[in-house]
Amino acid sequence: MALWGLTFDQVLALAGILLLGSVLASKASARLGIPALLLFILLGMLAGTDGPGGLFFEDYRFAQQLGSVALAFIIFSGGLDTQWESVRPLLWRGLSLSIVGVGITCGLVAAFAVGFLGFTPMEGLLLGAIVSSTDAAAVFSVLRARSINLRRRLIPLLELESGSNDPMAVFLTITFIEILKHPDVSSTSLAGSFLLQMPLGLAFGWMTGRLARWLMAHLRLEYDGLYPAISISMVLLTFGGSHAVGGNGYLAVYVSGLVLGKTNFLHRMSLIQFHDGLAWLMQIAMFITLGLLSYPSKLMPVAGVGLLLASFLVFLARPFAVYVALLFTKMRRRERLFIAWGGLRGAVPIILATFPLLANIPRAETMFHLVFFVVLVSLLLQSTTLPLVARWLGVVVPPSQRSFLPKAGSDLVEITVEPGSRADGQMVVNLGLPHTALLVLLRRNDSSYVPRGSTVIQAGDLITLATRKQDGAELQKVFLS
């Protein structure tokens, strides 16, 4: 049965089934400690040609276009939800990981591909560029599902790296494809393109972010539902406009989201929640589509080579790249090792692997299936062991050291309820909170709402309280085991 041979009603029904199945799969992922993204891919594979669904889908151009737009919204959401105060001290470390780390990873994978896979040097560089970027969304889904509390600077550093290394990987991939197609291309023109794309993307994103801030602050719309429409229009304008003027669209949308998110404006929290939901929808659509593109029967012949490549990437290339990129920082060796292990591969490498296919590059199909296999191994191996590695390396904050004090300039504090604590299983009215503390928001799984007195608190809930500094010790007694 061909996917595009279905009627419009059948396509809608199929989309509803796959979307519902993905939401249900996300519940299983929280229990198993496996990223929901991996289950989304598997769902697409089950629905595909080699699966029981039997749907034939081989439209790489559609998958690339869908993936590009989806990534723009996902990256914007990441920037919008990033705490600038926590990222600013780590800016140079994140940029070093995004530029130096990606470059070193690309070079090491290229050397491995030439020496062990029989690729030409330029084909090896292309493969290295494709697998060089990371996906922190998978990391956060595991950490939140297991209620792992990392040391403060690790989470924003992983977040900053994942939001800023995609543009570098995209640029390198397009550059090496251009060299393979046109061997006589000038290296000077390629260097000039790089020097132009990044500043233009940065400047365009900053301008559209400022414009979005002005619109949110000064427009008084009659209907609250139109504010998300403004932010969607700004994402499309930023991504498309940056590409149109020669800038990097992915960098532009991340910067735009970062600029918009660092200020307070009307409907800010509801807008962040809207884009978080939209990002999940985009991830589901993107990963199911990528799963439909894969053929398990074609993955098996490359399984042995793919396992070697994945092992080299995870155990050698990534740790060495992180070590060099953070060489002149004061980060501890254990923290560097965790950053290395937390470099999960996700959607971006698979989407980038469609670029050579559309450009008719030699061995493009082999590259696609190799990259797909590497992503599956990375998600399955690293994600399931991430909480264990965090504890083994000692980068988890002990309960006695966790701070329940509001940040400077704020009266709000976020606390994750621990199993066996006084709050676990209790109604809000029975928590015995200090009279100066007010529970204003409760986040459970992917839902956020204002709790009532009858709301029962559960382990793993992320709650936001309005409180004072002197309440820290009492809150620790209530929410820690």
Task: Please describe what this structure looks like.
- The protein is mostly helical and 481 residues long.
- It has helices spanning 8-32, 36-47, 60-80, 84-87, 91-116, 121-130, 136-145, 154-181, 187-218, 227-244, 249-261, 268-293, 296-299, 303-325, 333-341, 347-352, 354-358, 364-393, 472-479, and strands at residues 412-416, 438-444, 447-449, 462-466.
- The chain has two domains: 3-393, Na+/H+ antiporter like fold, CATH 1.20.1530.20; 402-479, Regulator of K+ conductance, C-terminal domain (Alpha-Beta Plaits).
- It contains 19 helices and four strands.
- It has a four-stranded antiparallel beta sheet, with no helix packed on it.
- β2 and β3 form a beta hairpin.
- It is globular.
- The model has no long low-confidence stretch (mean pLDDT 84).
